[in-house]
């Protein structure tokens, strides 16, 4: 089943950025948008929830002026539209939280919209069809501060300096080109389920990091878990703290209007 294949990738498509700007409101709109209920078998629903949680980032297909989201809850649509992480979406009504939708939309036939334009069009669609009303607000919540551990950062040079920089659950290669630590913090946010704020002052940093993903069964040659790996391999640490995080607060939402 195609939905099963989507489960492993649906929250790796778009890397959320911590929005720190005022929202000017969407100005672009889809010419046509079809929103249909997506019946999800119980076993597939459980798989989607186990992979992406209750607010999974959906798979977003863009081809020319067409946009297709095969399956998503309202929370996931908000994440794509406003480019935020799951913990930055607050106040989804319980009656809307578990409903899945399929989105087929088409923009202006004259050009292919950029990803930023697509986000604005999704915002307009959510406002018009879901009667979505949101506001931005800094909410105090648990975070991790990424800091330098006692003894200082460790050299963890790339075994292949020409390897492209990449992230996947279980490893980060910050090689060619080295990634900024703010970007590394975003990846670590996905792994920890909390906002990770870079307070290392390191800027860009070339390294390899390997750890045992939380859901993976340990083997005799498995790397350590993430918190241990960061300290042993990089000389960094994740310190639990609290701090204000820019969030999207849902004021109102309804079932989508008919196509």
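-> sequence recovered:
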């Amino acid at each position: 089943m195609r939905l099963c294949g989507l489960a492993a990738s649906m929250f790796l498509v778009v890397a959320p950025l911590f929005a720190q700007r005022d929202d000017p409101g969407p100005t672009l709109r889809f010419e046509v948008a079809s929103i249909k209920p997506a019946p999800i078998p119980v076993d597939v629903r459980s798989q989607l929830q186990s992979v992406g949680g209750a607010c999974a980032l959906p798979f977003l297909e863009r081809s020319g002026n067409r946009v297709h989201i095969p399956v998503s809850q309202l929370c996931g649509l908000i994440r794509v539209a406003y480019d935020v992480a799951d913990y930055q979406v607050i106040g989804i009504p319980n009656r809307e939280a578990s409903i899945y939708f399929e989105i087929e939309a088409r923009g202006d036939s004259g050009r292919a919209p950029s990803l930023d334009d697509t986000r604005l069009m999704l915002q307009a669609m959510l406002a018009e069809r879901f009667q979505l009303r949101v506001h931005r607000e800094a909410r105090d919540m648990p975070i991790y501060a990424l800091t330098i551990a006692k003894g200082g950062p460790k050299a963890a040079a790339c075994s292949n300096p020409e390897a492209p920089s990449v992230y996947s659950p279980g490893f980060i290669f910050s090689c060619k080109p080295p990634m900024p630590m703010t970007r590394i913090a975003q990846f670590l946010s996905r792994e920890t389920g909390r906002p990770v704020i870079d307070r290392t002052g390191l800027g860009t940093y070339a390294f390899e990091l390997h750890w045992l993903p939380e859901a993976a069964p340990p083997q005799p040659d498995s790397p350590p878990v993430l918190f241990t790996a960061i300290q042993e391999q990089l000389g960094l640490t994740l310190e639990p703290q609290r701090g204000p995080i820019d969030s999207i607060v849902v004021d109102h939402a309804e079932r989508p209007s008919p196509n």
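Confidence is low (pLDDT under 50) at residues 1-22.
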